[in-house]
Amino acid sequence: MTRRTVGLVLLNMAGVLVIAGALYDLLVPCVPANHLAYVGAATDRLDPRYAELDLAMLRSIGGCLLAVGLTTLILTNGPVRRGEPWALLAAAMLVGVAEGNNAYRMYPFNSPWYGPLGFAVLALVGAALATPPRRARAGQRVAEPAASLKGGPAEPLGNSRIGGEPPSMS
Fold first, then answer.
1. Domain ranges of the chain
2. What is the torsional sign of CA 123, 129, 133, 137?
3. How many other β-carbons are positioned within 10 Å of the β-carbon of residue 3?
């Protein structure tokens, strides 16, 4: 498996895991226990308006993260696979910023922040590994088997100067 293939696999994994986290946020049936603990409320004592607000916020981040995950998969399997460098940068920034911020905001509430942070790291490492191989640029000389030692083009076999006359300066 090549370095590039590993990078593409990691980017795809990051996209799928972002989608999985988004689905949890979208489908969670009730206020998570760590949110209740943070506000110091028992399940039956939480004002229903606060529960609605908390679930609405979770679902809004879930919708955004679903879009991030789907876009990451589209970028990875389209322009990134074709070797377009802008797409690597876009995918890395998309997941890095979204999930990095998600992890940062989850930490104070004793939420599992290490998941989103791991997704961001997967995307960044995947993007670094998925960079396409470098190509020769225009104007850059590529060594030829019969090239002269001075770096110029190869001379035809019949015009060898070894042991012959020096070239004319006319």
1. 3-129
2. positive
3. 12
